[in-house]
Design brief:
The complex is a heterodimer of chains A (114) and B (112). With 114 residues, chain A is mostly beta strands. Chain A is built from no helices and 11 strands. Chain A starts with a strand and ends with a strand. The termini of chain B are far apart. In chain B, the strands form 2 sheets. In chain B, strands 2, 4, 5, 9, 10 and 11 form a 6-stranded mixed sheet that branches. With 112 residues, chain B is mainly beta. The chains are: A mainly beta (114), B mainly beta (112). Chains A and B meet through strand 5 and strand 10 of A and strand 5 and strand 10 of B.
């Protein structure tokens, strides 16, 4: 089975530009998560969806960040405008919602804002 | 105080030894506890979950939970160089939610 698929894997962009990260969860999984990982702060939950509905976005750092899930097989995380401090690895993950709440991570999108 | 604390390491152990990784958490109402392994440049992968006080064994891995003392640990027996990675502790604060709080991880080095 295909795992969680993220794109792009690597992105380098200039400060002020819009960045869109994409995610396809594992088929049949009802939960989708966006995490950000940095050396200083570790792995932080930004937002998660259940059945395409945002459940908790309290981790979204500020209004420059937005996330959508238009259907069960696709989600986006958008940063507009991007800033150097947004440089991090962004992970998308999904979960079937049973089996002890196990979540499965994608390979990550490595973002560098210069 | 961080919600989930881990020693960043690196923790170095010789091949074949037992590696002991520790994690403490601040929310006494936490329900579920997880250990993830993350190789450099890769995504985290689940090793074990534990929900009740005591030990839980899975192959060379043993998770230990002590809710009264608010710590969870991971023991890796017969450590192998392939176990060299960062180990992340995650805590779910409330049953039925997915608000996992991750520690910053402990880097383990197994020396051949």
């Amino acid at each position: 089975d295909a795992g969680v698929i993220q794109s792009p894997r690597h992105e380098v962009t200039e400060m002020g530009q819009e960045v869109t990260l994409r995610c396809k969860p594992i088929s049949g999984h009802d939960y989708l998560f966006w995490y950000r990982q940095t050396m200083m702060r570790g792995l932080e939950l930004l937002i998660y969806f259940n059945n395409n509905v945002p459940i908790d976005d309290s981790g979204m750092p500020e209004d420059r960040f937005s996330a959508k899930m238009p259907n069960a097989s696709f989600s986006t995380l958008k940063i507009q405008p991007s800033e150097p401090r947004d440089s991090a690895v962004y992970f998308c993950a999904s979960s079937p919602g049973y089996s002890g709440n196990t979540i499965y991570f994608g390979e990550g999108s490595w973002l560098t804002v210069v | 105080q961080k919600e989930v604390e881990q020693n960043s390491g690196p923790l170095s152990v010789p091949e074949g030894a037992i590696a002991s990784l520790n994690c403490t958490y601040s929310d006494r109402g936490s329900q579920s506890f997880f250990w993830y392994r993350q190789y450099s440049g890769k995504s985290p992968e689940l090793i074990m979950s534990i929900y009740s006080n005591g030990d839980k064994e899975d192959g060379r891995f043993t998770a230990q939970l002590n809710k009264a003392s608010q710590y969870v640990s991971l023991l890796i027996r017969d450590s192998q160089p392939s176990d060299s990675a960062t180990y992340l502790c995650a805590v779910n604060r409330a049953s039925g939610t997915y608000k996992y709080i991750f520690g910053t991880g402990t880097r383990l080095k197994v020396l051949a």
